[in-house]
């Protein structure tokens, strides 16, 4: 394989990838579902935009811009009434579309609205779509599409680099050997699921020289399972493990100020029935966490100091270049305003 010098040059001048001022229009994690009970409202700052997110008594989650169009009170100071929210300050009330439907001092509602944003719940999280109408699904593990799942939250963390850069770790083929001591050469094959999602799956089975690989081989019919699925350049799901039991870890990331990352890891497994299934899943989720910890421990420090600049790519960096290209092909929004970065 030869390194394409033209592409290398172009990926060094990215418009979207690893830029502190923009992110991809998409679904982003906002708040754990369990932290938002029916009738509660919470303030959430998401990608630089301040929101009030509430759960109506019907269980539905509504996300709206934080500040009241009357005088700017934060709506998370207000009160949920049925499926609506009432501002604390002068009691204007807004429905789930953000429309003002009660202005007590005037007797009839003022014709104003607060902007609302599409929401969804998946893997124990409330997700917000950062545009008008969702174009793609909430991030999911490809193997578990449409499956009911059990989850466990791992760590919540802040890293001193952009989410795009942090996610690259999972497809940095060579570092599995240099950092994580994996006795297997990883070679990825990419596949685009849609405009906003791409998977990289390992294609190798390993040679005869490693005792560990020989030991593991009976558990893999084909290649050693390791695949990463990226959504909106910001959330990734890793799938790995023997054929009889796959582990799934989601890294739900979002861009915060100064080009840093705030993230939450989520362990995921297919729901299994009965008490036995529940106990089995607790063990699987615990094991998944140990696998995640092992990989996180090896290189968490490097992401506090890295100044990412792929000046000299090698063939082993091919997937990274493909990921950069994939990110560059998506719709960028400005951090803070969520307006199009292209206008
Ligand atoms: S500031 Fe919200 S009703 Fe006055
Ligand atoms: Fe790593």
Short synopsis of the structure:
By secondary structure, this protein is α+β, with helices and mostly antiparallel strands.
Notable characteristics:
single chain; alpha+beta; seven-stranded antiparallel sheet; dioxygenase activity; Naphthalene 1,2-dioxygenase Alpha Subunit, Chain A, domain 1; binds FE2/S2 (inorganic) cluster; binds fe (ii) ion; 20 strands; 343 residues; four-stranded antiparallel sheet; disordered N terminus; Rieske Iron-sulfur Protein; 19% helix; 7 helices
Structure description:
- There is one protein chain.
- With 343 residues, the protein is of the alpha+beta class.
- The protein has two domains: 25-129, Rieske Iron-sulfur Protein; 142-332, Naphthalene 1,2-dioxygenase Alpha Subunit, Chain A, domain 1.
- Helix content is 19%, strand content 32%.
- The strands form five sheets. It has a seven-stranded antiparallel beta sheet with strand order 13-19-18-17-16-15-14. A four-stranded antiparallel beta sheet has the order 3-4-5-10, with no helix packed on it. A four-stranded antiparallel beta sheet has the order 6-7-8-9, with no helix packed on it.
- The two termini are 39 Å apart.
- 33% of the residues are buried.
- Bound molecules: FE2/S2 (inorganic) cluster and fe (ii) ion (FE2).
- FE2/S2 (inorganic) cluster binds at residues 68, 70-71, 73, 87, 89-90, 92.
């Amino acid at each position: 394989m030869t390194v394409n010098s033209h592409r290398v040059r172009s990926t060094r001048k990215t418009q979207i990838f690893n830029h502190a001022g923009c992110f991809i229009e998409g679904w982003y994690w906002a708040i754990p579902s369990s932290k938002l009970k029916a009738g509660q409202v919470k303030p959430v700052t998401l990608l630089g935009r301040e929101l009030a997110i509430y759960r109506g008594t019907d269980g539905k989650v509504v996300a709206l811009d934080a500040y009241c169009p009357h005088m700017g009170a934060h709506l998370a100071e207000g009160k949920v009434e049925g499926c609506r929210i009432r501002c604390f300050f002068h009691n204007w009330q807004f429905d789930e579309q953000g429309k003002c439907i009660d202005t007590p001092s005037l007797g009839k509602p003022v014709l104003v609205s607060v902007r609302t944003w599409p929401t969804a719940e998946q893997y124990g999280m409330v997700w917000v779509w950062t545009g008008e109408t969702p174009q793609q699904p909430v991030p999911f593990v490809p193997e578990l599409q449409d499956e009911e799942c059990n989850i466990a939250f791992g760590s919540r963390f802040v890293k001193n680099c952009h989410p795009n850069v942090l996610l690259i770790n999972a497809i940095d083929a060579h570092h599995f050997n240099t950092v994580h001591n994996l006795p297997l050469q990883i070679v990825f094959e990419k596949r685009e699921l849609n405009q906003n999602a791409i998977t990289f799956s390992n294609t190798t089975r390993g040679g005869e020289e490693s005792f560990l690989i020989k030991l593991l081989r009976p558990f893999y019919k084909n290649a050693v399972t390791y695949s990463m699925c990226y959504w909106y350049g910001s959330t990734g799901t890793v799938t790995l493990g023997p054929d009889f039991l796959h582990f799934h870890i989601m890294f739900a990331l979002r861009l915060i100020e100064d080009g840093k990352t705030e993230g939450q890891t989520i362990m995921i497994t297919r729901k299994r029935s009965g008490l036995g299934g529940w106990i089995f899943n607790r063990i699987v989720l615990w094991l998944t966490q140990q696998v995640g910890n092992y990989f996180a421990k090896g290189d968490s420090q490097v992401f506090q100091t890295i100044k990412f600049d792929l000046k000299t790519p090698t063939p082993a960096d091919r997937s990274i270049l493909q990921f950069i290209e994939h990110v560059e092909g998506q719709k960028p929004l400005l951090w803070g305003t969520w307006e199009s970065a292209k206008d």
